[in-house]
Amino acid sequence: MSPRFAAPSETARPIHVTSPETLKQTLDGLPETARSWVDSQNFSAGPGEILALPGPDGRVVAALAGLGAESARPRHRFALARAASALPGGDWRFDGDLDPDAATEASLGWLLEGYRFDRYKSQEAPKARLVAPEGIDAARVEAMAEGEYLTRDLINTPASDMGPDELEVAARALAERFGAEIEVTTGDALLDANFPLIHTVGRAAPRAPRLIDLRWGDSGPTLTLVGKGVCFDTGGLNLKPGASMGLMKKDMGGAANVLGLAHMLMATGSEIRLRVLIPAVENAVSGNAFRPGDILTSRKGLTVEINNTDAEGRLVLADALALADETPSDLVLSMATLTGAARVAVGPDLAPFYATEDRDAQTLSGAAVHVADPVWRMPFHEPYEAMIEPGIADLDNAPSGGMAGSITAALFLRRFVTETPRYMHFDIYGWCPTPAPGRSKGGALQGARALFQAMPELLAK
Question: Does the keyword field hold Secreted (predicted)?
Answer without folding.
Answer: no
